[in-house]
Amino acid sequence: MKKGSAAVWWVVAIVAVLAVAEVHETAAEPCNPLELSPCLAAISGSQPPSAACCSKLKEQVPCFCDYMKNPAFKPYIDSPNAKKVAATCGVAFPTC
């Protein structure tokens, strides 16, 4: 294998890795607390969480710490009911 062709393979490999990383990044759910609206009844009341709530909780787990830093969202995210809903949904509550 010539030096030039080895360099081309390295460039192709790097481009492939970057393309996969970009696809993964665009597939990630953005942090949007409104996405948790299906959980409002369960968090603010005594209703069990719906399947839609559990699905949205699982999507938004990477955002929980950011939500905890926001004084407007912290009382809801850090409430005993929110932790109960997360446990019912099988979502590990992160320590921030």
UniProtKB/TrEMBL annotation:
Signal peptide bounds: 1-28
Pfam families xref list: LTP_2
| Chain segments annotated as transmembrane | none
Q: Which UniProt keywords apply?
A: Lipid-binding, Signal, Transport
Q: Which one GO biological process term can you cite for this protein?
A: lipid transport
Query: SUPFAM superfamilies in the record, alphabetically?
Result: Bifunctional inhibitor/lipid-transfer protein/seed storage 2S albumin
Which residue range or ranges hold the Bifunctional inhibitor/plant lipid transfer protein/seed storage helical domain?
31-96
- The answer on whether this UniProt entry bears the keyword Translocase reads no
Gene Ontology molecular-function annotations: lipid binding
Q: Which InterPro entries match?
A: Bifun_inhib/LTP/seed_sf (IPR036312), Bifunc_inhib/LTP/seed_store (IPR016140), nsLTP2 (IPR033872)
Identify the CDD domains for this entry: nsLTP2
Q: Does the keyword Signal apply?
A: yes
Protein's UniProt name:
Non-specific lipid-transfer protein 2
